[in-house]
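Researcher: Re-running this chain for the archive, since the previous output was lost when a drive failed. Same request as before.
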Amino acid sequence: MNYLLLNFIIALWIESISSLFFGIFLLIKGTEKSHRIFGLHSLSVSWWSFCQIWEISCDKYSTSLFWGRIETIGVTFIATFFLHFVISFLQIKNKKWLIRLAYLISSIFGGLSLTKYMIATTAPKFYLKHYHVPGIIFHFMTVYFCICVSYAIWKVIGAYKNSLGEKKNKLKYLWLGELLGFASGSANFLLVYNINVPFLPFLTYLGSIWPAFVTYAILRHHLLDINIVIKRTAVYSILVTLITMLYFSLVYMMEFIFRGFVGYKSVPWTLSVIALFILIFQPLKNLSQSFVDKYFFKTSQATLVEELQKAQEELKRAERLKAVGTLAAGMAHEIKNPLTGIKTFTEYLSAKHSEPGFVDKFQKIVSTEVDRINSIVQQLLDFSKPKPLELKEINIHQIIDQTLSLLSNSSIKYKISIIKNYDVSLPSVYVDPNQIQQVFCNLFLNAIEAMKKGGKLIITTGQDKNIIKITISDTGEGIAKKDIEHIFDPFYTSKQGGTGLGMSITYGIIKEHKGAIKVESEKNKGASVTVTLPIKSAQ
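Model: Regenerated structure tokens:
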């Protein structure tokens, strides 16, 4: 196998796999019609690359002809999907007729791809074993492909010129990425028309990075308005992986050429020469990675990881402060009661200070109420500052009741009835009271927020061998089936303005206590969360 053919196949494999994963990513993560269309566009690129690999590498004429004809179906739909995406993404009006016409033409070309009118035959061409010889219809398909792609890119460039700010950035990456992909891919048409392109395999390498280019725009600039939390770290990995693949391909190609000149065949010689080329080209690889760091991210990979960790910690603090705010509102009510007692005694102090026993009673009550206020404030401080587990033997009902008391304002506001089905014979457990209170606070708040039109919050406790079970049920709007499997995923949320960390933190606390948590729900039929904790110490 000559080195040009070898590199052509490697480049096509990279393009096929990267386009496949990019297309699947968009179909899964995309929320708009335009996202799915772009995903199909990427999958059609993968189809074309994959089929072309088999066409140019197989030995049999009949097999090559089969793959060449199948490949052409992907080619015609690459252009149509891209045209449809651009019209949808840019919200160009009154173009439904154009989209329908494009799909009709592609369907006709797709059907004819399996006949001699599209691909007449395949034959050796230059450094390729087989490549397709066009039929009469192929010429019309080529014209259609060029018109479709040129019109779409022209529309994107026009929108780019008339845009400002972030939208301009998005469109810049879109048209540059597609221009890169189409420029390298379209060069394959030259081979069809017997125009030798010796650098085509290396041009295909450039085209194979277009998914990474557009992925970078999605992750870095929210292209297509897809917002992923793990941004620069993920795309950094993609780009560096592609650079590494290109680097090793270059090393292998150089070794292949060197072997042809020198004529050695032994494995030790091959490995020695590869090692030599790795050392020679290592500065090039380092330079490429530095380029990615400097011009794409303005920083290093280590810094990216550090920034991500900081961002996660910030969100965790924000989630905790949100809960603290809710607790503070409840505590304000709790603090009013002892303050009222202190104020009452203070008002009578001047008139009754000479009465027997009044000062002693005043001192005792004021001291008790101040301690009560101090305890409440300390709870808030402990709650807001996460600490290592401090396990204490405690009755779980006490923590539940304290948390419900602090959230009483919210339950009254939304007309929620609290039903307690406690097992009074429940033994004590070893837990960190503050952290377990945060668990119940998160779970109760979720239930209350799901019942803003009123409902019932039911807390049931029980024992099963060496564990206690706390089941928190509500009659709220429930959780969609697709959300339940992600409910404990960090940053996953279906709430407007939510951080997606409440349930993740809850899960982490329960796991630290060697417990378990399970959520069951149906949309519009309420939700039920069961927490299990070991009776023995978690230590």
